[in-house]
Fold:
Amino acid sequence: MSRHEFRPGRLVAGLVMLGAATAYAGDASGAWQVPWYAVFPMLSGGLSLAALSAWTAYRIRRRRPARSASSENDGAPASTNGTQQNMYGRSLP
Structure:
């Protein structure tokens, strides 16, 4: 069982930031020339893609429990005689 849920928006945002850092690191080391304004289209496009993937994952997660809850109708509710019970099976006053 996984310890946390998968967040694709954060993954995409992190990869975009690593790409921008790599571009500027390459420019700083002299491997290639990157104009100062190149980061703006890269970050805006990457963060838009991250937002779209986060929204899509949110919509998928939101629909999954509703779909499984609607198919789990096993009949009678928990208490049909008007009394409520605690977690030990005893009636509450």
The chain has a mean pLDDT of 81. The chain is about 60% helix and 0% strand.
